[in-house]
Amino acid sequence: MERNRDTMSSSAGSQGPLAGIRILEAGHILAGPYASMMLSDLGAEVTKVEPPTGDMSRQVSDAYFASLNRGKRSVCLDLTGPAGQEKLHELVTDAHALIVNQKPSAIRKLGLTYEALKQYNEKIVCVAVTGYGLYGSDDPAFDYVIQAATGVAAMTGEPDGPPTLPGYSAADNSAGLTAALGLLAQIIAGRGGQIDVSLRDVMLSQLNYKASAYLNEGAPPVRHPFGAHPFYVPAQLFPTADGFLAMFLTHDRYWRTFVTEAAVPEAEIAAFPTMADRSANRDKVVEAVTRALAADTARGWEARLRPLGIPVAAVRTLPEALAEAPDRVIETAGYRLVANPIRIDGHTTSYGPPPTLGEHGTA
């Protein structure tokens, strides 16, 4: 469906903190495009280098593509031929960085590495986002596959249930943010080079304290009911009179405040005054808290406990969450999208439309 296109330039945030930074992106679907969109929102000029068939996300839906590619330019290049390669090299001479997420063999074959491009621009920063590393396996590595391969699925879900995948693309989004960080670090360093970011490595890194517990103490992750935290108790989802409540009590002060407000009988809590006590008696603590929370709804507990400084939230659907954060929804070219999460004093982010395929050139 055609949308009304904004009159602002594709580099909508041109006065942002990254104004003057020129980035090329040869990406598909999510990780690479998300990385470059975050940078575009902050003022970088991002030119999307697409094959004749376009980014694969164009085949999903217009809104899907817009959610990852607003504010960019698009050039359509056949990098398998000399004309496309010539145009790519022209773009490289004037660019600060290139982000690409494809199979390692495709990245090398299409000449999208620093080794292949440094002759045209020694200072260009080339960021490769792959499944298992630029010099690793060429196996397909979509988000859900990486979540399965790195232990995320195995540690998610109920103790007696099957492995569970989170409901969104955690690996792709995380890899995209990591790629953007690496790119900016190398630009600030003032030198070109190859940056290698793999989805596998990013997800293993994000398992930090769980991996450390295993590596140093031999304790593999154990699933607890309702997604309970392995160390803090009580810190999990709880059923209430209506809906579920997430509560995360990390301090003894939180605990004392909660049991007072919830009128938990002294006989049920006297033996658990410290976090160590509660961790050692997880089942009894959870039983006592669950009984107490049955007296009110999730929204009711949220209204009562938040003013007391206790970290809680009623479980919301995505539509409910978006309705409660209207300032986080922006509109560009007729698409309603989620805003960039980075807020900078003195700068108001503006958003450009997603580009049509080859809107800014073909070869």
Essential attributes:
CoA-Trfase_III_dom_1_sf; disordered N terminus; transferase; six-stranded parallel beta sheet; CoA-Trfase_III_dom3_sf; elongated; CoA-transferase_III_domain; three-stranded antiparallel beta sheet; 363 residues; 15% strand; alpha/beta; Rossmann fold; CoA-transferase activity
The CA-CA distance between the termini, in Å, is: 26 Å
SS content category? alpha/beta
What's the number of extended β-strand segments? Answer: 11
Helix percent band:
25-40%
CATH architecture of the largest domain: 3-Layer(aba) Sandwich
- Main sheet: strand order: 3-2-1-4-5-6
Keywords: Transferase
Protein name: L-carnitine dehydratase/bile acid-inducible protein F
GO molecular function, one term: CoA-transferase activity
Pfam families: CoA_transf_3
Would you give an account of this structure?
It comes from Pseudofrankia inefficax (strain DSM 45817 / CECT 9037 / DDB 130130 / EuI1c) (Frankia inefficax). Keywords: Transferase. The strands form three sheets. This protein has a six-stranded parallel beta sheet, with helices on both faces. A three-stranded antiparallel beta sheet has the order 7-8-9, covered by helices on one side. Mean pLDDT is 94; it is low at 1-14. With 363 residues, the chain is of the alpha/beta class. Helix 1 (31-41) crosses helix 7 (170-189) and helix 7 packs across helix 8. It folds into two domains: 22-208, 3-Layer(aba) Sandwich (Rossmann fold); 244-314, no CATH class. The chain has helices spanning 31-41, 62-69, 82-93, 104-109, 114-117, 143-149, 170-189, 199-206, 208-217, 252-261, 266-269, 275-280, 282-293, 298-305, 318-323, and strands spanning 22-27, 45-50, 73-76, 97-101, 125-130, 193-198, 235-239, 244-248, 312-314, 329-332, 335-338.
